């Protein structure tokens, strides 16, 4: 079982990139983890929002294995406390299926991507930049792993 965080566009903020990289390294002690970056669309400014979602959606769908469990990070998804998320992760990991979390582009996901999804998770009712979401979510996956192992990273 492998966990993948699939994102559209590279992280351009070097401070965020360093922190994301730190949590990626920490995660490899617990579970196979990959942050896979899909390229930004070329000539995106000449495309409508809907055309951008469609083009990004095609890239996303091509990057997901047929048997993977796909979870979209979406503002309309279910919110979890960290301990609840850890419990949810444990159930997902016990299935043995690869788990792919997807952060879409700035205009969300195409209907085809929503159709492929097995679930939606929201990090907050607040809006975060797509680059910040990467850091927050990688940290939450790491936090979930430490909770499941009973390690002293998370405090309640």
CATH superfamily: SPOUT methyltransferase, trefoil knot domain
Q: Note the total helix count.
A: 5
> How is the largest sheet built, in terms of strand order?
2-1-4-3-5
The CATH architecture term is: 3-Layer(aba) Sandwich
The secondary-structure element order is EHEHEHEHEH
Tell me the overall shape.
Answer: globular
Distance between the termini: 29 Å
What's the CATH class label?
Answer: Alpha Beta
Strand content: 15-25%
* Class by alpha and beta content: alpha/beta
| Subunit arrangement of the protein | single chain
Number of domains: 1
Average pLDDT metric: 94
Largest sheet: 5 strands, parallel
Please give the number of β-strands: 5
Describe the secondary structure blueprint for this structure.
Blueprint: E1 3-8, H1 14-27, E2 33-38, H2 49-62, E3 69-78, H3 82-94, E4 99-103, H4 111-116, E5 119-121, H5 130-148
Parallel strand pairs: 1-2, 1-4, 3-4, 3-5
Helix pairs in contact: 1-5, 3-5
Task: Characterize the structure shown.
The protein is of the alpha/beta class and 156 residues long. The protein has a single domain, classed as 3-Layer(aba) Sandwich (Alpha/beta knot), CATH 3.40.1280.10. The protein contains five helices and five strands, in the order βαβαβαβαβα. It has helices at residues 14-27, 49-62, 82-94, 111-116, 130-148; strands spanning 3-8, 33-38, 69-78, 99-103, 119-121. It has a five-stranded parallel sheet with strand order 2-1-4-3-5. Strand 1, helix 1 and strand 2 (33-38) form a beta-alpha-beta unit. The mean pLDDT is 94.
